[in-house]
Amino acid sequence: MGGCCEPEGYDTMFGAAFSRRLTRRYRRRGLDRTARRIVDVVAENGVEGASVLEVGGGVGAIQLELLRRGAARTTNLELVEAYEADAAALAREAGVADRVTRRRIDLARSPEAVEPHDVVVLHRVVCCYPDHQALLTAAAAHARRLLIFSHPPRNPFSRAAATGENLLFRLRGSPFRTYAHPPDAMMAAAGTSGLELAYHRRGLAWHIVGLASPTT
Ligand SMILES: C[S@@+](CC[C@H](N)C(=O)[O-])C[C@H]1O[C@@H](n2cnc3c(N)ncnc32)[C@H](O)[C@@H]1O
After folding, report:
1. Mind listing the pLDDT tens digit for each residue in 43-57?
2. With contact defined as beta carbons under 8 Å apart, do 151 and 129 qualify?
3. 107, part of any domain
4. Per-residue pLDDT for 175 more than 80?
5. What domain range is 114 assigned to?
6. Distance CA 216, CA 214 (A)
7. Which residues pair with 100 in a beta bridge?
8. Residues 6 or more apart from 95 whose CB is under 8 A from it?
9. Which of 3, 115, 183, 195 could pair covalently with 211 via S-S, beta carbons 3.0-4.6 A apart?
10. Tell me: the pLDDT tens digits for 59-74?
11. Residues near 6 by Cβ (< 8 Å), separated by ≥ 6?
């Protein structure tokens, strides 16, 4: 087992080198295409004054863009410590450090420790976490207005890729695993708190699912 709260292998998989790569990429090229789309969908649903919870937000790039678009504040939940210095530097550079809260916590295991937010985001996270039902059920319960998440498609190619990657992890002695969870089961878990499907985009590498509260 790794540190206080991460499933096995996260601390080596998502270490300082990974954080530096994400930071360099964001400084040079901004958000990746899927993250840009997520930001657009959140903005189209109303981001002005919103509180945003990002689970597994890494260095927090999506949050910086949402704060620029008018979000009031963001909370980042992470399992590992390695991003903190880079995330703090990026938030300082963007002039939003006082509106970003960063916590080391697993929402799936300790849902009661986190307050609900207007918007909940998970980008490239569900595929790293073994219990997608617990994670998405908790994420949905914390989303007052909108839950949006990305996940890899589940087809013979992606399943073969996950099997290949997991074989490599095993050979290297890493307990980390990647997952192509069933989309229907993820959708069902994300809908447990009454959120309804509002956005669905099927990209080649990433699908995006957005669920909104029917009362907004
Ligand atoms: C592939 S990285 C993606 C980071 C960032 N979202 C991005 O796209 O650049 C996945 C991240 O999700 C985090 N993560 C996975 N499950 C989590 C959970 N249950 N709670 C908080 N963070 C989680 C991991 O620690 C890791 O940093």
Report:
1. 999 999 999 999 999
2. no
3. yes
4. yes
5. 10-212
6. 6
7. 74
8. none
9. 195
10. 999 999 999 999 999 9
11. 79, 80, 106
- Ligand 1 interacting residues, C-beta cut-off 6 A: 10, 14, 22, 55-58, 77-80, 106-108, 123-125, 128-129, 135
Which amino acid type is present at position 83? Y
Q: Which candidate, 174, 192, 150, 191, places its Cα nearest to that of 39?
A: 150
pLDDT tens per residue across span 103-130? 999 999 999 999 999 999 999 999 999 9
Distance 35 CA to ligand 1 centre (A): 14
Q: Which atom of ligand 1 is nearest to the CA of 54?
A: 6
Distance from residue 196's CA to the centre of ligand 1 (Å):
24
Determine, yes or no, domain membership for 167.
yes
Q: Which atom of ligand 1 is nearest to the CA of 61?
A: 9
CATH value at residue 145: 3.40.50.150
Q: Indicate the top mutation candidate among 128, 148, 206 to test ligand 1's pocket, ranked by most ligand atoms within 8 A of CB.
A: 128
Number of domains within the chain: 1
Nearest CA owner, ligand 1 atom 11: 56
Nearest CA to ligand 1 atom 10: 125
Q: In what order do the strands lie in the sheet with 207-212?
A: 100-104, 73-78, 51-55, 117-122, 143-151, 207-212, 196-202
The reply to whether 14 falls in a domain is: yes
Torsion angle of alpha carbons 26, 31, 32, 34, nearest 10°? 150
